[in-house]
Amino acid sequence: MKNQKIIVLQVDLEDDPIKIKDYIDYHSNVWPEVIQDLKDRPIGRMRIYNVSDRLVMLLEVDENFKLEDGIHIEPPRTKVKEWSETMFPLLKKLESGEFDTWKEMNKVFDTDDYS
Asked: The whole model's pTM is what?
């Protein structure tokens, strides 16, 4: 079995109940091409959680996976690009006019450090 690591990311949605619901609804039936792209990348497992307008993503990936290479295959496949373009307007718009992006979170605590 390969050695794996977990990468945790966060992003904020627009603080709008309709946009939050839309994001959750889209993710209840993700397009098959997007799922296949993640498997081809390969992403071992992806989970997204939310509280209010905050999203947290957990990626289980091979220990050699480099986040800077991207989560999806580059250049993006047509349906993956369309998916991303559908998701961007649901994200929080920053003062710069750009949409918020997924950012890696730092690990603060792990019970395994106390074995």
From this structure: 0.91
